[in-house]
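@channel anyone free to eyeball this complex?
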Amino acid sequence: MRYKYLWLIALIILLILAPLFLSKFLMVFLTEMLIMILFAISFNLLFGYTGLLSFGHAAFFSIGSYVTGLVLLYIYPSIPLAFAIGVVAATIAAWIIGYFCVRLDEIYFAMLTLAFGMMVHTIVWKWDRLTGGADGLVNIPRPNLNFLLFQVDLSSIASYYYFTFVLVAIALYVLWIIVNSNFGLALRAVRENSERLQFVGINVRRYRLISFVISGFFCGLAGALFGPFLKSITPSTAFWTKSAEPVFMSLLGGTKIFLAPAVGSVIFMYLKEIISGYTELWMLFLGAILIGFVLFLPGGIVGFLYEKLRGRKLGRVGE
Amino acid sequence: MSKKVSRRKFLKDAGLFGAGMIGVPLLKGVSRGPSNAWAAAKPIKFGGIYSLSGVVAAWGKAGQQGAMMAAMEINQAGGILKRPVECRFEDDACNPEFGVRKIRRLVLDWGADFLHGFNHSGVALSAVPILPELKRMLLITCASSPAITTEAFNKYVFRPRANVYQSGAAAGVIAAKMPYKKWTVIGPDYSFGWDAWGGFIYHLLKRKPDVEVMSTQAWPKFGAGDFTSYILKVMEAKPDAVYTPLWGGDFVTFLKQAKRYGFFEKVAVVITEGGLAVDGFYALSTKGGTESEVPEGIWGAAHGYWFDHPKTEKNKKWVEKFMSMYGEYPHNVAHDAYGAMYLYKKAIEKAKTIETDAVIEAMETMEFDTPGYTRKMRKEDHSAFAEVPYGKTAKAPEKTGIAMNLVDIVDAPGKDIIEPIEDVLERRAKKTPAPWMKYVIKG
Amino acid sequence: MTFSTFFAFFLNGLTSAMTFFIIASGLTLIYGVLRILNLAHGSLFMLGAFFTFQLTHWFGNFWYALIFAPFICAVAGVIMERIFIRPVYGLPIPFQLLLTFGLMLLITDIVRIFWGVAFRTATEPQVLSGTMNIFGVSYPRYNIFVIVVGILVCIFIWILLTKTRFGKMIRASSSDREVANGLGINVPLLYTIVFGIGAWLAGLSGVLAAPLRSIMLEMDVHTIIEAFAIVVIGGLGSIPGALLGSLLLGQLNSFGTLYIPRFEMAFMYVLMAIILLIRPKGLLGEEVS
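replying in thread with the prediction:
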């Protein structure tokens, strides 16, 4: 009975056909949205599935962006090489930062990730000989992709959209497998009752760290995609408000269902890009929506719908 | 008071509040009533991106004012190629990410045919690489880091005004005549700040090799808000003279705070590239505009244009018209945005089409007029032979609202101060850092 | 370095330490009693600064701002607490953060509606302008005023918490809400009042800071992160900790410009991380249950 995946297949087909009927503006919008969806869902691996709230995840996103950009600008203009190095850099950073952070719980974990995130922000901002300082990296090239035997021209809006779509789809699929594996089950157990697990002899810290690192890996990938998309990177990608974005995208959409943060991303991006075309006051709407969700729909949109349709309670994060 | 009311009403009628849709300017004021052809003609869309919010909001507003004034005049005179001009403005909030988004929005969503703008060099540098994908021209009306036409250059970007290499050369001429040896800087910590200081010292050292570039320098972040520690640091180093690329609200805040510590008594001379533009004077005027907090004797270029100079009929008339429209003296960005619109008009009419490549070709070698000056584009890097004025502050109660004026203004000639094209091309090809960066010392 | 320069830097550090302390004490007080991490605290600070601009603009009198603006912020805080924050007591941290983040966005755009997007300045009152002579150093009078007010606020909080019955109620409720309830303390009302006090402090800090810097829309996101760092370093819920943290950060900002201009801010986050790893309750904090 695979009918529940029908909507997913329809969505994928729509996304593949998008350049045929969407304006260039909407394609650019969609590209960025896909990047943010990857960011949010990778973040949610740590948040919804492992139960750890990180307020510094922009660190891995920005490291992925900056390193990818630096490789493209100064080492060698090759997308696969730059992306690989960028993602590896983000993963190593996640390993180091995660090593320290998973020792702590709850609010202390959040504060420590915040501290590390702002440390990264200060470094990318102040190390201006390397990173360009406040202006950041500019003129990031988007060279043709030499993949196997193909040469793909990434310079157009449509082609970069497809490139992003393919990478994000693959990444999400891999995450999906991880989440549904035994490892994923263990993570959920860690989230629910870490004390009990420790008594049973399971190294809770190790599971948390692995989850942290995987999350960092995919956030780094999202960051890598972001650089050539904008053709520039600035320190604002590492500021704490950027770290807050996947937090509320996950909470808005729902943290207990794999694709739910994507819904939160759509809402957020819609407000930021589309609403801000009509009024400069998009933050008012976003703020009101966030408040409304916390007060009335704490399970997120998808969580709310899920409970309504299935009559089953999902429970809220942190419970 | 009444002047302010009528100005507000005028601006409101023109839809000039904040960013957003401006529409076809002043169609209802047109004396020759719209003919059918005019009403049916598809407008040419000009998108402007300026910093309309934040520390330098006044500079963004000036861009709007200048461009709108030009657009209205152009429409009154029959438009360009018999098509009306339509304007829309977006706010980049001094944020490079926003700059990229808004430029894409203006072209892909609104359908801009031509672009102008950018106050902040960092934002401009992020936006310029996007132009080839959009295939649209951008006229830079304010941002003055040389990198925009060197390292980041592509054929779509034009800068019909001076950059800080040029204004640095002009300042170097002035400073070389002074007896001061020990120079330092307090400037915003980004490309414009570094390039402005570096460009100035580079030229000063060429003329006066015994100048000492102090290693104690102050680089607060752009929009810092609190400069007191930096002011103390500079004063502690006891320089003879200070150069400051601080601009907009940063300069205003700096000046107020520096005065508290007696900065201008302890330091002999201060040169500021853009700090004393007309918005700074308005912000620092006191007692209803009859007095000013600005000390006398500070040298400034007002970022390339001061309304009271040159004292030509054309300039005077333009300033009067601007004053009657907006109730204030024109800012340099207003002057350059106004000039940019007319440059577009001239190039489009020469090319007889709005096709980007044709207009580029027409504009590349064009000589053009602004209310104050005559300038000429240079083909290889789309920068301009432009004069840069430098004068010093003096009390002037007759200047309503600001009570000060820049006097003894000397224009440095355009061809003397522009960077040699061989240097530009070499730097572009080899991707070497600019030779003046070594004077930026962060400690 | 001469003594006078050193002293000027020290006083600079003390001045910013005092503005930090006033806002951080409010934040830590709110956390200590209500267990709420208020991301909108920086927004209340920003409101205080904007109200200062407005009141000095209308009346030409800074003292009106000093007296009224913090109270307006306190009222705003009370409204915030009763309508928005009350429902989230007991909810996990992510929801608190999300809610207060939403409030922060809301307040930012409300400020944008009323005051537009340009930056503002406020001038100190005439009687406090100019410099005065302190130990042979010529230093701005207004900064000394800020330092004095900071010390007064310190004393005021100390008296409030230790010498008054109200203070005893606060301390009882922060250590054990149920016991406090059992003792007949009207906990919800107490929470509202404490939040109001915290908001008042944030507003006061904004008023004092207004003449020292430019007043702009991004003030909230930068201030809140500094306040958080201070509160974590000093100890969540500890007022003496907030004072210590503020003094540290104030001097770091001041002398850091001179000696380590590149990475001065990173120092604070490194310190924050070290404290969290080695002594999570903070330098002067008590055990947080």
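from a first look: The radius of gyration of chain A is 19 Å.
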